[in-house]
Amino acid sequence: MSTGTETVLAAPDAEVPPTVAGRVRKKLTSRTASAISLVIALLWTVPTLGVLISSIRPENEIKSNGWWNFFSNPQFTLENYEQVLFGSRSASGGLAGYFVNSLVITIPSVLFPLAFCALAAYALAWTRFRGRDWIYIGIFALQIVPLQMALIPLLSFFNYGVSLGGFQLLPAWDLDGPAKFITVWFAHTCFALPLGIFLLHNFMAELPGDLVEAARVDGATHAKIFRSIILPLIVPALASFAIFQFLWVWNDLLVALIFAGGPKNAPLTVRLAELAGNRGNEWQRLTAAAFVSIIVPLTVFLSLQRYFVRGLLAGSVKG
Amino acid sequence: MNFDFTAEAPKLMMLLYGVIAFAAVVGLLLLVLDVLPARKDRWIALGLLAPAGLLLLVGLVVPAIRTMILAFMNADSTEFVGLENFLWIFTDKNSGMLPDFGATPVQYGVLLSTLLWVLLVPTVSTAVGLVYAVMVDRSRFESFAKSLVFMPMAISFVGAGIIWKFVYEYRQEGADQIGLLNQLVVAMGGTPQQWLLDGPWNTLFLIVVLVWIQAGFAMVVLSAAIKAIPADIVEAARIDGVTAGQMFWRVTIPSIRPALVVVLVTISIGTLKVFDIVRTMTGGQFGTSVVANEMYTYSFRADERGKGAALAVLLFLFVIPIVIYQVRLMRRRRLEGAR
Questions:
Q1: Chain B partners within 8 Å of A317 (Cβ)
Q2: Residue of B nearest to A31 (CA)
Q3: Does the distance separating the beta carbons of B178 and A272 come in below 8 Å?
Q4: CB distance A127–B180 less than 8 Å?
Q5: Contact A189 B59 (CB under 8 A)
């Protein structure tokens, strides 16, 4: 816990924790500290709890009295969930279909950037060529470009292709039905690259160089080094970027609104925003719908929190 | 039950195609790498960077440049109009961008509202995150306590919007309140309020939602920074007999300043772009709109591409000073460190 001198010096009141935070907490009297942290913890959880409890209460109960009455008068139903998931589309939700859309949008939108970022980060960290640092700085700088800057031209690129001076250089994508998902994947992949390359590069550049050098001396190709040395080592970094990207895509509204188009391809967030706008007082549906959209990212997040935190720290503190 | 599996099958096929395409692309890239001469780093690098580079060019760089051009063109991008779109933002009284303090209730306008978001969200979230990180540090339930505050980060802005809309829900005076906030107000003898409708305070109630989401991020990063403060600094201060307040302001804060700056900057940049919360909770009505929401409305709802592009460029311009500040700070610290 501490070195010998410190222990001696700390002897008079050895109970004092050795960190700054510990000392501050001690001095503020732990009662105030507990009270403050309890208030914050309650503020940060009770709103979600209210929605969860409401989602399993009967409609007339939700609309006539507060969810906290559930504790004195518990009434339980799954009807709200049945309605929002499987009810006929226009009236109540039809969220099951949108749930599938969210999955179809999210999975490839995580896989593609993961692969492209890993390859690019490897090139920037472990191959030598002129201008490498400039390319890295350029990609790093792209992080600050708000994605709003790309939306209008990207949409017209998908819809009308590229023409220069009346000459059609690239045709319109003309995608219909399920194929429209491709444009959403494309957009999400592009927008994920700057942060992804930055995160993975940071991680790869810190791997011991001797490993790679030794393999190269033995005549291993870059492809082999990447596959058999680098890839196994960067699994934690890949995991944290994958979680980031998963949460980002699953929770995204803007890109989906613009590129997914129409109820056939729109993800949960789009439907949820629609419900909140059109049926703002149908709390029995809104609460259940909100929970359907929250449950997947929450599960992923809580089970893989460790990797997520690691990625967060690597991305923010080192940068 | 009304779930038609046959309607979902084509989408799932599409997902399958997507995953197959992914496997094919990755396999092909690695195959090409194997074939390329091993000693020529330049060609290998080109092969590795090509997909990412191409996508960045097509999906980000070229569109961003085009947006800058569109910002100087008219609604359907057929002719140049000079600075007209920007003049509209900054001088036109009817654009809704400028504050109107004569109106009742006071109208902040889109620009001032956005500024309010950018000032309040980072500072309040960081303050809450810092206090919480200090309070729960080394306590018995630390990791559980942190998970509670961290959890909203997994919730979408849309979901958080609905959660808080429910907290703010209004029922007439005398009726049973179903929103938590009005219930508390009534319990303390007040009259229930329409929190999201009545300006100019409604913007603050939207800001609360983003603070709620971002505080967890601040807490996690700052908590890690606090744990990294060297124990001997703390010991030295303790021997000098500092009080808790001195310890916090003179030891903790200076030691974690780099992390504080990163947190503040990251949250500010994120806040500028926030759109979903406003969209879900008020749709930008009742004087709550922000630049990102107007950008969406003008570009994709009102078919005013010139104005939409100008607003996007404005967002970009707002980010630049924040980034310059961070870079300068980083460079100064590096110089100090070298000395």
A1: 221, 224-225, 258-259, 262
A2: B135
A3: no
A4: no
A5: yes
A175 and A38, same domain (yes or no) = no
Residue A167 dihedral angles phi and psi, to the nearest 5°: -100, 125
Per residue in A4-19, pLDDT (tens digit) is 333 333 334 444 455 6
Contact B8 A97 (CB under 8 A): yes
A102 and A75 housed in the same domain: no
Q: Do B273 and A146 touch (CB under 8 A)?
A: yes
| pTM recorded for the entire structure | 0.87
Read off the CATH number of the domain in which A185 is found.
1.10.3720.10
The 10s digit of each residue's pLDDT in B78-89 is 888 888 889 888
Per-position DSSP letters for A228-280, written without gaps between them:
IIIHHHTHHHHHHHHHHHHHHHHH--HHIIIII-HHHH--HHHHHHHHHHH-T
Kindly list the residues from chain A whose CB atom is less than 8 angstroms away from the CB atom of residue B3: 85-86, 96-97
Is the domain spanning B89-338 CATH 3.40.50.300? The answer is: no
> Hey, how many other C-beta atoms are within 10 angstroms of the C-beta on A21?
26
CA distance B71 to A124: 34
Give residue A180's domain range. Answer: 90-316
- What's the pLDDT at A9? 36
Q: Assess A35–B contact: CB distance below 8 Å, yes or no.
A: no
Q: Please tell me whether the interface predicted TM-score (ipTM) of this complex is above 0.90.
A: no
